[in-house]
C-alpha cells in the first residue's frame, strides 16, 4: 500500500478510530512494513516505515522514520535513512541505552550494520563472516536466561542451507555462543523462526515451521533451544480425513503485483491454559484452497515429542475460520482489551492487490486470569519533554518471567 493509517483503541464502539493518516503516494513508494518505536528517546511513539520504490522493481528497501509529536505524525517531519537495506531490518537495542536501534545488511556492505537510535549514526554491528538469510527471522530475545536480550541470527552459508546463530549479550558486547545450528536434516523449505515458552518451563524454545519437499507436500514444525543439539518434531500430522494440508512456500521471485508471505507461525495462548498455541496458514496440497488454522498446544501423545511433553494439534473444525478463503496472514490480537486473545485474518480480495481484514471474537470462557505488562523505557517519568506521559512506546527486548500456582497447587513457570 501507499498510505499508512493509525487507528487508536477506544473502550467504546467503534473500538478503533482512525487518528493518523500518512499518504505516501507523493513519494512514489510502496510500504513494506511498519515498526512503531521511540527512535529519538523523547518517550513519544515514532514510526519507522520500510518502503520499496514503485518505479523500478529493485529489491532495495528505503527506510523512513516519522517523528511522533502529541500522538500525531507529520509527512514533513521525517528522516529518510541515507542507506538502503537488502532485507527488512531488525529493530533492537544494540547499545543498551533504551532507545531502539536498526540492524541489517545495507547496500554498501556485506556485513550487518547498526543505526544507533538517537543520534542516527551508522556503525559496523558484528564481526561475522556469515551471509544473512533472506527473508531473515532474526530476533532480539533472551536465550540464556540472564534477563538480557541476546541476538539470534538466521544465516545462509549457501543457497541450499539455513543456519542459526546465537550471539550472547554480555555487558553490552555480543559474542557468538557455540557453533551455528544447522536446520533439521532433510528440510527443503525453511519458514520463519519464532520463540515461545512451548512447554511451560519458563525458558523460550525455538520453533521452526518447515517443508521436507519444495512444494510443501510434507510439512512439519520442529523445536529446539540453546544447549539442545537436536530438533524435536512437535507437529507432523497435517492430514484431515482424506485431505492433506501443508504450509505455503514463500516465493521470492513473484511479480511485484503479487505478494508472497514467508511461512510464519503467530503465537498466542487462545485458551489461557498457560501453553502457547499458534495460528498458521495452510493450503490443500491437492487443491487451491488456502486458509488459517489454529494449532493447539496439547500434551504429547507420541514417541517423537516425548522429551518436550507437548505438541501441536491442528484444530480442523473451526467453522468461522474455515469460512475465510484465501487467507494469507492470521494473528492473535486482544481486541477488547480483556486478556482474551481474538483472531485477525487477512485474506485476498477480488484481485491480488486487494486484501480484506476479518476479525473473530474469541468466546472462550475459563476460570483464568491474565497479567497485563507495560514496559516503560525509564528515560523519563514525570519530567518528560512537553509534559507527555511516557506510556505506549514499543520497547524491543524486555523479557518477563513469572511463577504462579496452578489449580492443583503445583508451581508453574511462564515467560
Automatic annotation (TrEMBL):
One of its GO terms (cellular component) is plasma membrane. It comes from Charadrius vociferus (Killdeer). This is T-cell immunomodulatory protein.
